[in-house]
Hints:
Helix content is 22%, strand content 31%. By secondary structure, the protein is of the alpha+beta class.
Amino acid sequence: MGHPAQKLATYADLLALPPAVKGEILDGVLYTQPRPRFRHARAASFLEHGIFGPYDQGIRGPGGWWILVEPGIELPGTPEVSPDLAGWRRERMSEPPEDEAIKVVPDWVCEILSPSTRNYDQRIKKAFYAKHGVAFLWIVDPDARIITASRLENGLWLEIGVFGAEEPMRVAPFEAIEIDLSDLWEKPKNETSL
C-alpha cells in the first residue's frame, strides 16, 4: 500500500505563521524557527555594515554588488528562502525587482547560527544552497566565535578560510577589503548616564 503524497507548502502557509515565527519553504517543505534574537541580529548588522559600503555602494571598495539582509528569494520549488545576508553581482542581476521576490540565485549567502537554527542551517540550508549553485557561503558561529567561508566546487563546499576573534578576515568573494572581527564578538557595553 502506497503512502499518500505530502502536500507541498505554499506562500499562503508562510503568511499564516504567527509574527514571532520566521518561515522558509525549501523544495516544498515549510521550515520554521523563532525570529532572530539580539546576538544573531547584531552579527548580521555588523557584517552587512562592513560589506555594504565597499561592495554595494562602492565606498572605499570595488562596488558591483547588491547586499541585502534577509531578502525574500524565490527559486524553483521554493517560494521563499531568506538567508541572513545575501549578495548578487550586479553583472548577474543588473535590475533587482522592486515589489516581488528575487528570482536570481545569490552569488553569496551568509547564515548566522543560533541554538534554534544550527542544525537547520548546517544540514538543510547548506545542501540547498549547493543544489541551487550559490557560489560562496559564510557560516557565522557566535558560540565558537568563528566564521567559516566556503566556495562551491563541483557541487560540494570547499572550505577556503576559518576566521576567529583576534584576526582580520579577508576572503572571497569580498577579498578586496579586510573585516576586523574583534568588534563582532564583543558584548555591547551598557552606557550609563550621569
